[in-house]
Specification:
- The protein is an alpha/beta fold.
- The termini are far apart.
- It is built from 17 helices and eight strands.
- The chain binds nicotinamide-adenine-dinucleotide.
- Nicotinamide-adenine-dinucleotide binds next to helix 1, helix 6 and helix 14.
């Protein structure tokens, strides 16, 4: 029988981390959710807010829970389930939360340096045997764990939820050479039996299966057509009029433009030059500029393609 996971720490309370935390709470698990400390210049704190105040220190995790509560399609089955998510921030609570957890789900920026720094904090606190997964969209799992101890590496895998985490059925599981089979069975049991998801096993290649293939048409649209046509026109053509369920630029705003930019950049950098994706995933300069100006959409940003151009 697969090992039972009951208590989970989610690190990163953005679009995905807050959504995953909400769905874990829906499914009866004990959930901790942490984010970094807010930065006054970047995070638009209320006037007079001080980092001496614990509410301010937990501001980003609270914002993530609120975003799930207030979303048109809420991440929680009922609002009361938000009380099951205990919030905190990485410097103050990561150690305590990780020590109490069977599983840690990392959902911070799609940036290998930021993720590795988070793993170092997790490794310092975790009990032997704690499972750690990344929700990365496609950074190689083997690269993420470079430099970590054998115990950490054996208990590490990719667990790729889709957005929004409550509603999207698929979870990709990605092991690497030395991930223990027991870890993979525990993750599969969690995904299928507790969270009600369908599981596919993907290889540890850039973008895994879903993003390597699924993001391709979107990347072509961004690079080939956007400067010629409006997003409204392209969404009309490539949304329901071409048989797709979703409008590509509405989807981009839901994903969040920072994440989208990072996913494209990683794919372009990591795919061989002979692969068509190498050029297709190149980040167009306007997307970099929108991210630099904070026009990132998602729960964190005010505007993306639809309001920010
Ligand atoms: P996001 O930008 O919405 O959220 C990332 C969160 O991480 C932010 O709240 C940020 O403050 C926090 N963070 C950054 N550094 C931190 C640190 N050192 N400690 C604690 N928190 C920190 O990003 P997202 O879209 O939720 O993506 C998270 C991960 O999930 C990425 O790896 C991404 O590729 C993946 N993913 C995203 C989507 C999507 O549709 N957005 C879908 C599937 C997977």
């Amino acid at each position: 029988m697969a090992r039972r996971i009951q208590t989970v720490t989610v690190v990163g309370a953005g679009t995905m981390g807050s959504g995953i935390a909400a769905h874990l709470a829906n499914s009866g698990l004990n959930v901790y959710l942490v984010d970094r400390l807010p930065e006054p210049a970047m995070d638009k704190l209320p006037h007079g807010a001080s980092l001496d105040d614990s509410h301010v220190r937990n501001y980003l995790a609270r914002r993530g829970v609120n975003a799930q509560l207030n979303a048109r399609n809420s991440g929680f089955y009922v609002p009361q389930l938000a009380d099951r998510v205990i919030i905190g921030n990485t410097p103050d609570q990561l150690g305590e939360f990780v020590r109490a957890s069977d599983l840690v789900i990392e959902a911070v920026y799609e940036d290998i340096g930021v993720k590795r720094e988070v793993y170092s904090g997790i490794e310092a606190a975790m009990e032997p045997g704690t499972i750690v997964v990344s929700n990365t969209s496609g950074l190689p799992i083997a690269e993420l764990v470079e430099g970590r101890s054998a115990g950490f590496v054996e208990h590490f895998a990719g667990m790729h939820f889709f957005n929004p985490a409550r509603y999207m059925m698929l979870v990709e599981l990605i092991s690497h050479e030395v991930t223990s089979p027991e870890v993979m069975s525990a993750l599969e049991a969690l995904a299928r039996e507790r969270l009600g998801k369908e599981v596919v096993y993907a290889n540890d290649v850039p973008g895994f299966a879903a993003n390597r293939i699924g993001a391709y048409p979107m990347a072509i649209l961004f690079n080939e057509y956007l400067l010629e046509q409006s997003v409204e026109f392209l969404d009309l053509i490539f949304g329901k009029h071409s048989g797709a369920n979703e409008k590509p630029f509405v989807t981009a705003d839901i994903v969040g433009l920072r994440t989208l930019r990072d996913v494209m950049a990683n794919l372009s950098r990591r795919l061989p030059e002979t692969d068509a994706g190498h050029g297709a995933y190149k980040v167009p300069p306007y997307l970099d500029e929108m991210v630099a100006r904070g026009l990132v959409a998602g729960p964190q940003g005010k505007s993306g393609f639809y309001l920010g151009r």
